[in-house]
Write a structure and sequence with these properties.
The chain has 218 residues and is mainly alpha-helical. Helix content is 64%, strand content 3%. The protein has 8 helices and 2 strands, in the order H-H-E-E-H-H-H-H-H-H. The protein has a two-stranded antiparallel sheet. A hairpin with a 5-residue loop joins strand 1 and strand 2. Helix 3 packs across helix 5 and helix 3 crosses helix 8. It is elongated.
Amino acid sequence: MRLAGLLYRFLLVLIAWCCLNTAQGQTIPDSVLKRIPLPELGPNDTIPVAAEVYQNSEIVPSQVMPWIWITAPYPKRLWEKRKEWTRLRNAVYVTYPYARKAGMIINDINAHLAKITDKNKRKEYIKTREKELKKEFSDPLTQLSIYQGKVLMKLINRQTGNNCYDLIAEYKGNFSAHFWQTVAFFFNSSLKQPYDAQGDDKVIEEIVKEVEKMYGIG
């Protein structure tokens, strides 16, 4: 072990001596070059490396490090929020076309009802448009989940400015509105779904804007 240490020190001294003599214009003996691999030397007997020049003309060696990817497990709290957001986004994408089409029909019905004062004629007009609503939405809406139904009621409120309870009360009477409100209650829902684009429903509004932008609406 002691002999190996002495040999290692001797090699270091030999390399340093060779570099010093080369810097002074002397050549490295071929016997040394054959035994010890040396780096390729530059014009001033230095090893060329990449460098950067700063404003004060200072030359500093530089090096590009390889990319290193660092991953970490997703926090459970953020993962739950992401799943909730994804569920809401999917529900908006599914129900927004229905809400938009229903909103156009309902707004048209309300515009016509504003010009009809006779109670019997209002009922007759509502009955004719009720068939149109059933034809457009009866089959597709039965395929929605309870959660999607809640989102749909919010979006109808957004499109018409009225919650579903008020719409049913206007078209079918207070008794029908109260009945369906009771049914909705048993499904942990409500026909009186509000819509606050700047408050509780801000996330829904952002998703709706995304949908409208995708379809070139607005």
